[in-house]
UniProtKB/TrEMBL annotation:
Organism: Pelagomonas calceolata
This protein's record includes keyword Transferase: no
The keyword Magnesium belongs to this UniProt entry's keyword annotation: no
Official protein name in the record: Protochlorophyllide reductase
Gene3D superfamilies: NAD(P)-binding Rossmann-like Domain
Signal peptide: 1-17
Pfam families: adh_short (PF00106)
Keywords: Oxidoreductase, Signal
Phylogenetic classification of the source organism: Eukaryota, Sar, Stramenopiles, Ochrophyta, Pelagophyceae
Gene Ontology molecular-function annotations: oxidoreductase activity
């Protein structure tokens, strides 16, 4: 045990030095806050957490068996995006803990497969809800059909590489990643019973150009579409949504960065491998992350004979970190990375911005649904 603790201390010391050096040249670039410093600090923490995980297990495995949980025993948990990737593994982990699970997705065949896979480890019931978050009418109907829930994990997401609009004339990424979830969550919260909501976000929330949302041009009609900026904007919205949620409802909310995971999130990218999420960053920081990972691997190989640290996490590992945000006590209001609380960017901690996003989201959805209902009443809706 002593050599393990020494190894951890050594890794932390090394990565602190590396990250500190990496942030120096980035300070010359004028930004609302120092993104270089922020990401270097997060990389330093990630490297240390990877070592602790390899030696002592993840945060979920360290929760006390039979101890207090944020979701009551036997509760019903809704998981979006749970037909594949991280979402599927979240549903499996939640089911294995003894909760009823509602698997959500838009493809019927994938839903059937997911229900079967979750059912293999489930200790209670497994249901499915088919709907597309890119359709407000489908999402509204799904919320009504689901009814009551005790927990909600908003895990679905996409990363469009080109500008695309939904049937509701909203930018596809923003609707799938934020607005659809906003509608689903608020309708389920209106039904009562939800104890905690987990908004699956990303460290990319800190990669927006100005560390703030551009709600005045959310449809990208006045500027050239930038897929990296657009995705970062949606992830910032995820964190701000979780921040504002407890102010609007009597519910606990957590936002969680699951880590860089090789998943279907990158399905729209025309490349053999998924893009480096840190490609959002200046080259200096990107290079430092590789150095941090290499350093951590070297220490682990010498101490425990293996080097499990990798840029990309396995979906199950990422899922277990998300589930910590759902069930672990004492995390209300936290932003998690690898299942542990950490700092957001300053823009994601802006209460005024969170309130503005909430009001904008509510009015945008209400206007879109009102228009749809009006068209249906006139018989103009294409069913």
């Amino acid at each position: 045990m002593r050599r393990h603790l020494i190894a951890i201390a050594s890794v932390v010391a090394v990565v602190q030095g590396l990250a500190g050096r990496a942030s120096v040249p980035l300070a010359q670039k004028p930004t609302l806050f120092s993104r270089g410093s922020y990401f270097a600090q997060r990389a330093r923490e990630d490297a240390a957490r990877a070592v602790r995980r390899a030696l002592f297990g993840d945060q979920l495995s360290q929760l006390q068996v039979g101890g207090p949980r944020a979701i009551p025993d036997g509760g019903r948990v809704v998981v979006t995006g749970s037909t594949s990737g991280v979402g599927l593994d979240v549903a499996r982990e939640v089911a294995a803990l003894g909760y009823d699970v509602v698997v959500c997705g838009r493809d019927e065949k994938k839903l059937e497969r997911a229900v079967a896979l979750v059912g293999r480890v489930a200790r209670r019931g497994v249901e499915s809800a088919r709907f597309d978050l890119e359709s407000l009418t489908e999402t509204r109907a799904a919320a009504a059909a689901i009814g009551r829930a005790d927990g909600l994990v908003l895990c679905a997401g996409c990363w469009p590489t080109t500008l695309r609009y939904t049937e509701d004339e909203l930018e596809a990424g923003l609707q799938a990643n934020h607005l659809g979830h906003f509608l689903l969550a608020t309708r389920l919260l209106d039904a009562g019973g939800v104890a905690r909501v987990v908004s699956v976000a990303s460290t990319a929330h800190a990669a927006t150009r100005q560390d703030r949302l551009e709600l005045d041009d959310a449809r990208w009609t006045r500027r050239a579409f930038d897929p990296l900026e657009a995705y970062a904007q949606t992830k910032l919205a995820n964190v701000l949504f979780a921040r504002e949620l407890p102010r609007r409802y009597a519910v606990e909310a957590v936002s969680a960065h699951p880590g860089a995971v090789d998943s279907e999130l990158f399905r729209d990218f025309d490349v053999a491998l998924p893009p480096d999420p840190f490609g959002l960053l200046p080259p200096t920081v990107d290079a430092s992350i590789g150095t941090l990972s290499t350093t951590a691997q070297s220490f682990l190989k010498g101490v425990v004979g293996s080097a499990p640290v990798s840029v990309f996490k396995k979906p199950r590992d990422a899922a277990r970190d998300v589930v910590v945000g759902l069930v672990a006590p004492g995390l209300a209001g936290a932003y998690l990375s690898d299942g542990e609380p950490t700092e957001t960017s300053p823009g994601a901690a802006d209460d005024a911005a969170a309130a503005e996003l909430w009001d904008w989201s509510r009015s945008t959805i209400d206007e879109a649904l009102a228009l749809i209902d009006e068209e249906r009443a006139r018989g103009d809706w294409d069913f």
